[in-house]
Write the structure tokens for this entry.
Amino acid sequence: MEGSLYTAIGIAMFGIGLFGVVALAQAMKKILAVNICGVGIFMIFIANSTAVNGSVDYVPHAIVLTGIVVAVAGTALALSLVCRIYDKTKQQVGK
Amino acid sequence: MIEYALFIDLMLGVGAVITAILCLAIRDLFQSILVFMCMGLLVTLIWARLGAWDVAIAEAAIGAGLTGALLLATRRRLMQQDKS
């Protein structure tokens, strides 16, 4: 029951993040939207890692744990690119 | 008879979706980053609810704390260079 509920919520959060990526102008808001997309994907993974009889599969947990770290590294890369673009062009992206 | 487990699941899920919408709908960037950190804490509670304790701890430390600190530092740098 709760697995299917959280799967639906993860799909909804992925859709919200995708809408934010294509609809917002600011670069920082786009980075936030990509992070929201990632949270939705991780929620789908974790919600489907529990079987019907209650046994937990730990491989999706490890994959999501790796994915959180990679998401933080990608966010840091994107933010450093935003800073570098502002240093070069003296104006913020989309503002 | 209210099923309390389903009630808690529904409240956490609807709260996560509402904070995600609010994070993109607010105009001010500072408030948006704060709402994003609140969403990270709520997602931490969801993963504790689903039984993934290690993922919950990693999300609370990295997803809410470190990402929020990076975003706030970048925003402050852009604002400082905007003023000068």
